[in-house]
Here is the input.
Amino acid sequence: MRLLVVEDAPRLRQTLVTALTRSGHTTDSAPDGQQAWLLLTEHPYDVIVLDIMIPEPDGLTILGRLRAKGDTTPVLLLTARDAVEERVRGLTAGADDYLVKPFALAELEARLQTLHRRRHGIAHPRFHAGPLEIDTASRSVFRGGRAIPLTSREYALLELLAMKPGRVFSREQIEAALYSDTSPPASNAVDSAICILRRKLSPEGSPSLIQTRRGMGYCFDPA
Here is the structure.
């Protein structure tokens, strides 16, 4: 997933970015509403982690702007107030979930995974994609009961494609999903990653699960 963390407390913001990046996610961050909005206009995100009490515009204002322009990106609100009124305000404004500080990183990760799956209509952490079984909780992949070892970026690439079988992703879209502005990819990084992933997913002699659409990009085709 490509995530945006909007949190004004420097230590907490860095802790979240470090933890989520180590979990294999591409993670951008912003300390205030102004920088957050700039990033949101420049990049697509899978889930947004948004603190309510950030310097103006505050979290609920950012959320309202997103929903007003038809952006349905899942938003998980962070709040220091465990008050019913605060939660109701956030959910009414269009938030998909919320967490009250302090919280466990494991719970944050689980909630982000749930929001991401829900957006793609996948109810269970384990789902089938053709001959593959993908476990989004453990970020692992199996074929015929055998685990397929993937790097974090290879898994992220597979998850991106397999959650929308048949949809063609351009190189630019794949780069935007897998790489942050601080670690831009080499010119052939996507093509190379696709080539390696194909070999790992399909036994020799079997059809490739990832197809090239000339001049357009790549898609996951379980057929």
Q: What stands out?
A: The longest helix spans residues 105-119. The first strand starts at residue 2 and ends at 6. The chain has two domains: 2-119, 126-220. The two ends are 25 Å apart (CA to CA).
